[in-house]
Amino acid sequence: MAYTISTAFAIYFVMWWVTLFLTLPFGVRSQHEDGVGAPGTDPGAPIVPGLGRKLIWTTVISAVIFAVSWLAYSAGLLNVERLSKLMGFPF
């Protein structure tokens, strides 16, 4: 089974979103932790979320993960038969 452009994009897209959710909590300070905040806002709301940096980090990290998985797939290390054996399922 060969990767097509649409398959590769779909896999990268899923990896990018998972990586985004993993990077969102890093470096966030809440209003409660700093003792500042506007009245009527949630004390757990971030003061400066830094989404620009997180989007860049997400793109870089997910590109590295995608490249490693693409190389593993191309080398034959990542296929259905091998993964089913690792999980203990007969193929």
Automatic annotation (TrEMBL):
Transmembrane segments: 7-28, 55-78
Annotated keywords: Membrane, Transmembrane, Transmembrane helix
Keyword Membrane on entry: yes
InterPro entries listed in its UniProt record: DUF1467
Origin superkingdom: Bacteria
The protein's name: Predicted secreted protein
Upper classification of the organism: Bacteria, Pseudomonadati, Pseudomonadota, Alphaproteobacteria, Hyphomicrobiales
